[in-house]
Amino acid sequence: MSLIEKINDRRQVLHGWIKQGFGRTSGNARPRTGGRAGRVSGNLKLARERARDAFKH
């Protein structure tokens, strides 16, 4: 896993947390669900890269 990919995936997870928190405080469901989707997507990418690295070595 390259460092750039790792940073981008972590950034996506963090952005999801921020977006979800904004949705909670504003009472708007759209940012809240979008933030959750961003978090899940980022975590799946990280898991995929970890699995790829585990089988590579």
SSE layout:
Blueprint: H1 3-26, H2 29-56
Helix pairs in contact: 1-2
Would you kindly provide a written description of the structure presented here, covering whatever features stand out?
The protein is mainly α and 57 residues long. It has one domain. Helices cover 91% and strands 0% of the residues. The relative contact order is 0.20. The model has no long low-confidence stretch (mean pLDDT 89).
Number of helices: 2
Main sheet: strands, sense, barrel: none
First and last CA, distance: 12 Å
Mean pLDDT: 89
How many extended strands? 0
The radius of gyration computed from the alpha-carbon positions, rounded to a whole number of angstroms, is: 13 Å
Give the overall silhouette: elongated
Query: How big a fraction of the residues is strand?
Result: under 5%
Structural class: mainly alpha
Total domain count: 1
Order of helices and strands: HH
Low-pLDDT windows of residues: none
Q: State the helical fraction.
A: over 70%
Question: Keywords for this structure?
Answer:
57 residues; mainly alpha; elongated
Write a brief caption for the model.
The chain has 57 residues and is mainly α.
